[in-house]
Amino acid sequence: xxxxxxxxxxxxxxxxxxxxxxxxxxxxxxxxxxxxxxxxxxxxxxxxxxxxxxxxxxxxxxxxxxxxxxxxxxxxxxxxxxxxxxxxxxxxxxxxxxxxxxxxxxxxxxxxxxxxxxxxxxxxxxxxxxxxxxxxxxxxxxxxxxxxxxxxxxxxxxxxxxxxxxxxxxxxxxxxxxxxxxxxxxxxxxxxxxxxxxxxxxxxxxxxxxxxxxxxxxxxxxxx
Length: 224
What we know:
Number of helices: 11
Radius of gyration: 17 Å
Number of domains: 2
Oligomer: single chain
Strand content: 5-15%
CATH class of the largest domain: Alpha Beta
Strand order of the largest sheet: 2-1-3-4-5
CATH architecture of the largest domain: 3-Layer(aba) Sandwich
CATH topology of the largest domain: Rossmann fold
Structural class: alpha/beta
Number of strands: 5
Largest sheet: 5 strands, parallel
């Protein structure tokens, strides 16, 4: 059972999400919050698998709440998915850097929302390749100082791991990486996992952010 907390100041939206999620046999809404501060309290109490977090809320916004949750060592299994009205909300990029595992636009189709929650709970990043490139391409230029530091971290990777991280940055799945590099899916998964451990990143979403901030993948660029 995947336990979910809903954090949004719109009561009707939370009610709609609860009805949708509770109708699924493997999803269970265990708590709700209407502010960032309340979200942190509820998550610390219930320790859910996934938090659907609105970017903008009173009483401490979703970005601040996400950072607090991600930095809490007692909540390492909890994943945060940001909810936003627009897919190029500048706060979404900051939320990804803060540790969110992905984001959903509020008018996402129900089937995609359900699939996304399950993917994040399983440890995958909720970032479509196209939106990822537009989002990070829009804001990566603001992180030049960070980029220099992140580029240095890549020195811990083998040449093959750097290739794999670059492809993760493009939004490719393990199966797609395996096909591109003529590897088995299991080997591709191993390279991704080892890279995450070496780079001390929480999940694939953070690997994507690091790939862009380090310059390993450039906005609007795609390898052949």
